[in-house]
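RECORD TYPE: inverse folding
INPUT: structure tokens
STRUCTURE:
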């Protein structure tokens, strides 16, 4: 299976969710006994802004798997989306040629699922488009 390109839009300061139905030949994939993980980074190998997972190691959001329905649900609280971008470290921003007043921030992510047998599938990948908030 080839990973699907899916850009995700997040509004900073809002509760955010996204659902994706994983299907094979039109039928839902049974996700019972699967786990999932997703990293949000500024570039490949770059700074980690959030790590979502189905496990207790999640830091910045959660992933819920829908069992026999094949639905993968990603979610972040308003506090987690607020924490995604904090332009306090201006030197770090300059190093990556980012401006603290930039309205939309673009990062990368990929979403991997792992079966109980250890088979890893990259289901989705693309950009995170974070629309920064003005009202805090």
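DESIGNED SEQUENCE:
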């Amino acid at each position: 299976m080839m990973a699907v390109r899916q850009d995700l839009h997040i509004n900073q300061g809002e509760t955010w969710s996204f659902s994706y139905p994983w299907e094979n030949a039109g039928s839902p994939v049974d996700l019972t006994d699967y786990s999932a993980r997703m990293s949000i980074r500024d570039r490949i190998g770059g700074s980690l802004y959030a790590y979502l997972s189905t496990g207790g190691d999640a830091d910045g959001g959660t992933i819920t798997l829908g069992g026999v329905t094949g639905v993968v649900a990603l979610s972040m609280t308003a506090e987690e989306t607020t924490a995604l971008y904090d332009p306090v470290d201006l030197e770090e921003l300059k190093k990556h040629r980012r401006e603290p007043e930039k309205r939309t921030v673009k990062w990368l992510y990929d979403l991997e699922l792992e079966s109980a047998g250890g088979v890893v599938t990259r289901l989705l990948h693309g950009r995170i488009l974070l629309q920064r908030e003005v009202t805090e």
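NOTES: The radius of gyration is 16 Å.
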